[in-house]
Amino acid sequence: MRTCLLSFVTLLLAFEMQAQGNLEQVSKKLTAAKPGDIVLLEGFLNEGFPKIAYQKKIQPGPQFIISDDPEYIRIPEAIVLQEEVNPGAVRLYVYNVNGVTAPEKMPRKISAVIKNMGRENMRIRMLKYSSQKPSTNYFQIGKQGLEDYFNSNVLKNVRTVKPGEVIAIDEKLEKQIVNYDELVHGFYEFVVDQPALVSILQTSPQKSGPKAFASIDTIIPFSHVNAGRGVFPVSNYKITNDEVIDTKNGVSQLIVADGEDDPWVNGTIGPDKEDAKNVGNYGVMYNTKLKWKSSDGKGLALITWNARSDNGQWCGGMGLTMSLSDKNMKKTVRQYPLNQLVTKGRPEAILIEIYKPDPAKEIQEIEFTYSPPGASCLPTPLILVPVDL
User: Fewer beta carbons within 10 angstroms: which end of the chain, N or C?
Assistant: First the structure.
């Protein structure tokens, strides 16, 4: 009995020493890297790190519309989303692909239009604008789209729409030709002062979106696939941790947008208000503040990795964009990884940022805005690793 107990204790100590040695190597690699770099962390990455308990509160935000069901538009002339919005702020996320193969593959136009449903002139004022050239490089479009959105601050862009009139939301989409398998990606925030009807449609390159809207009578049915489609009441969350993170307690991870601890946002589809889910919470902003302290003088490295790389052919890569704020509220928007398109999977980790303890403050804050990355499999864990500085 005593021999077995001694053997167990010896084995446990050996594991602890190995883990400690591994963490020291991880610390050295992370502190030698730059934010945005991919760092190879052999034998370290796993999904079993302790989860950070957090509070999630709905923040005031715009009505949110997403168009991703269907993602691939197979019909040459069709409407793929049509939703009414109330006067106020609207966030619109367009994620659609020219999928026409019959009678043959053909270039198309995919456009977003808005109709004034009120009795008075409607003013539409653009607040944030992100529009990328159609491409088959979905990862790059997703990363660039979020970067442009985070950096966008549109001024003096106000248009007037007469009652019953239809205009294009994004004039750039009106000028672009979308070839087969190319993704159209647009991310917008705007304010309207009349009830309005937002539609996403596919038509020929020769037709304007508003003219096509008047002639198209086909609205493709939804099928509850991909991220979904519809209008959703939640567009922003505030995330705060329950307990102060202490570097002496080791590695921990924040998990959001997993559909379990953080459920998908519910909404409605179409005039009948049928149930909808934003599967992935794509386009939702997670405004995050994590309190932490350093009892042992260490800093914290914030990293992420593609934890779903083994989940099939669509999960082989992951890339994201985040907006970080420092202690002086200076904002930094950065694509991850920075010097290549995606990370593939373990042992690859992406260094997001390293946070140093402030000797003048016992408790500090890590502040960032995260939005689930398009074209990537979720969740993407946000891991905090104590590091020697």
Answer: N
